[in-house]
## 1
Amino acid sequence: MSHISLVGAGPGPVELLTLRALRRIEAAEVVVYDRLVGEEILACIPKGAARFDVGKRCGEPSPSQSQINALLLALARTGKRVVRLKGGDPLVFGRGGEEALHLARHGIQAELVPGITAALGCAASAAIPLTHRGVARSLTLITGHLMEEEDYQGWQALARSGHTLVFYMGLERADRIRRGLLAAGALPDLPVALVVAGCSPRQQVVETRLDALAQAAESLLGQSPVLIMMGEVVRLRSELDSLLGQAMERVA
């Protein structure tokens, strides 16, 4: 019987896996994984399991999505317990929907196992509340690839007040994001945080403003992954981070 699980590996640490995700990984006979899956999580794969690294790396040869789809279909048909492991959540900018549809159209029903997406994990790790009463009542997750469309018409909706924005894969498109939001009426001093390698020991948080976003992003080029968060909630980070630190000292 064919069985394949599309599993969200979360933002990196093994402690941020769901219990279901961990159980699927530990029982896997075959694992197909992406570049952003952390080493801690890869260490949970059984020693005898076959591994396929299909991660996409900028500027380097990597499998196309159609090749990955074909591989998943072939592996699922072997009857082994196959896990497709994706960083974050498979259905948030992870192409999990595309892979599940491809399998379903060929008669194989995939199990979808959610994971903590980068926006949620990095916000908690960086002490930035994505929503906050009286400050932000809505949240939008955006792929930076959308900014490559010069005729993109959504800037007005993104620029509204009382709203938090999180851009995935937006570092190299930071100037386009800056120009689009400013032209739509966003304030130049809108707070921005760039979270580098969130939830990992390498985490770095760079705070800036919308009108200086391009310069801040340029200083981080070559680092990965980077998430761009913006909105008035970013102003809460300093106080929250300080108070959380004090609380931890009292507990210690």
Note: The chain has a mean pLDDT of 92.
## 2
Amino acid sequence: MKRILLLGANGQLGTDIQKVFSLSSQYEIVPVYRSQLDVENDDIASFLGHVNDFDILINCTSYHKTDECEDFPEKSFAVNSLAVLEIAKYCNAHHKTLFHITTDYLFDGKGNRPYREDDQPNPLSVYGNSKLSGEHFIKAYHDGYFIFRVSSLFGKAGASGKGGNFVETMINLAKQGKTIRVIDDQVMSPTHTLDIAKAIHTFIEQEIDSYGVYHCSGEGECSWHDFAAEIFKEINADVDLIPVPHTSYQTKANRPLYSVLDNSKLNRIHQMPDWQDSLTDYLKLKGHLS
């Protein structure tokens, strides 16, 4: 039986990883919550040493409040970079496979085609820079790693620390009967966290050893406005939905206008579904659709 240590177990992705792996008797997931390990402040190597009898570590910890990261760069780099360095060093020294989750916000959005793994990152924000630094540390200090870059997550548990996700926010606004204005000039790939969990399961189950960076997002692309429109269409909600440019909302952090990820590399091992199909599955899981 493979023993898998899961850091950040209470977030959207961590919750779905637990769900997916609970269906396989050959794996034991050991969930680790912030109350047990605060990666910003605790001695990570000491903690991992106490639970050393694991084979794989999946790191879902992240400080991902993008605008807040601009105000707290020290915290951003402590969680997204320095903690990752300690995790990578420990896993390498003790021959543990590492799965680490990063972001499409590594890119500046000036491209006009989906980003591949070998495209040059150029983050626009503290958050993006801190996540990129974490990637560099893993590449420098570990030999057996998988970095999964993901995009625009939605999952049944809701985002840890964010109080839900975009889908639930849109549904709640629709119930209030208000006019809803959504950005139509930022394009990305909505991603159901359950699909990422299934991809990680495939990599472990098939004992993939082609280590490196993989893009893992919903297939296809849309603007946030298109995403909202699809949500309302699926649940048959009559909403006054108005497209607006990103300049309508003043944010502290700059975000890429185009951050679609090319999944071709990952799809050769595990095919990611279209984001619309994943949205339908999510809405059924949450009870929004029968």
Note: Residues 199 and 223 are 24 Å apart (CA to CA).
## 3
Amino acid sequence: MGGVGGGASDDQACREFLEALRVGGLCTGTVTEVARSADGVTVTLDGFPARPLGTVGPRDLSWRRFPAAEVEVGQRITAKVLAVDPDEGRVELSMAAAENPELWAFLSSLRYGEILTGTIASIERYGVFVALDGGPDHPVFPGVGFVSFPELSWRRFESASEVVEVGQRVSCEFLQFDTWNGEARLSLRAMEQDPFQTFADATPVGRTLEGRVTRLIPFGVFVQVADGIEGLVPLRELAWTPVAAPEEVVGVGDAVKVTVTELDRARRRLTLSRRRVSPDLG
């Protein structure tokens, strides 16, 4: 840095000020600018009035809805220090953490892979909220823990109520601290053995299986070959003779024989063929 503000002496004062800050500590200041974009809020910090050094990103303004509308230029704030960069002359702040110190401390103490217990507090169309044992209340949501749909179960389901119910006791694996909403992202399915991996262990490529058609799509059909295990039969693999649409050959609920042509463990993808089972299929 050089030539910014009051020159070299100003730069040195800025660096000394920032180096004295500690991540996790609190600082106060005045909102200098409110950007209606991804930039969030700029703050002039008490103790260094020369220029704004603090920034509060949109994710750290508040855990309540529409936080940007609640912050105005000239407003006094208290925020927690998230990161300090003396070289760039910048400190990242969180107002949300300062507003909810008990919640922030609880979430910050969690570690990836930790097993947490709690009670299903609410089932929403986008996921499930969990009231965690020993966790504080959330200022907005019915629980501080959240399980997204993909993390509810290894098996396919139409509604979260097929997997859990309100009031049910659960154990979940902690995935991450979601600072956008101030919640613990959890996985319920991580507590179960992945049925696909078990299936892959016992099923080599080339094996013929019996299954039932569950879905028709423009480029093929899905066939359930085991509990919770579905594989795709591409359109070209439905019959020896070309077909324009899957319904020309099979329908939902039909019992079929298929051959395993590919097992992708990492992506949990099973590819099947109907035409390779018997040359008589047409």
Note: DSSP finds four helices and 15 strands in the chain.
